[in-house]
Amino acid sequence: xxxxxxxxxxxxxMEMAKILGSLxxxxxxxxxxxxxxxxxxxxxxxxxxxxxxxxxxxxSKEEDCRRLHAYCKGRDVRVFINNAGRGxxxxxxxxxxxxxxxxxxxxxxxTHLLFKLFSGSMENGFILNVASMAAFQETPLMAxxxxxxxxxxxxxxxxxxxxxxxGKPVHVATLCPGSVATGFDKAAGVPHPLSGMSxxxxxxxxIYGMFRGRSVIIPGTKEKLARLAVKLLPREIILPMEYRIxxxxxxxx
Length: 253
Hints:
The protein has 253 residues and is of the alpha/beta class. The protein has a single domain, classed as Rossmann fold (3-Layer(aba) Sandwich). It is built from nine helices and nine strands. The chain has helices spanning 11-22, 34-48, 62-72, 97-121, 143-166, 184-188, 199-211, 221-232, 235-250, and strands spanning 2-6, 26-31, 52-56, 77-82, 125-130, 170-175, 180-181, 197-198, 216-217. The strands form two sheets. It has a seven-stranded parallel β-sheet, with helices on both faces. The protein has a two-stranded parallel ribbon with strand order 7-8. Helix 1 packs across helix 7 (199-211) and helix 4 (97-121) runs parallel beside helix 5.
């Protein structure tokens, strides 16, 4: 059995790869950073006695997405973790347009393409698409990022329902974490990141939630309460709350 994890060189992706290795899955781990990826593969293979292969690629490029799928096609892929993504924070008119375009390519076009390719070639198993709590509501000061995760959340939920109705034995789960202590905030240009759960805690909730057949996985009690609040409170309250939360990351408040 093979598990494929994108964005695996650090953070949640790395921790999910470790858990899958501990469960006996052979691994194909994809990311841009060759050194970190190779070191991770070596450590997992040595500790859990499984095969762990590094696939160095830039998944913001369509050709690299197709190359990854071609490399995995014909193998016994039972788990695909669609984790690669990035964020951009700041007032809409001040954020760098090129950075936003790269984010849109990675968070929407690439995740969509990989989701389509792998779900089409997998006979059975599990797919986990990594979204965010930002998928559930508007996120001023991270407007474009939140919109990309809303896209992935709605796509995943809809396709999972389709598969159930069609009898296709591939379960699609969506991970929607809140703040997690990873390198994501630094890469997104967040000057004052908020404290969050550890990447290992988030990964454990994600993997075991997926295998238990949950369609939406929200790790953490605080995050579950926040999701309930979004359902109950009007947008007139949610929007200023979100603006303040993201503003704290920028040092506005």
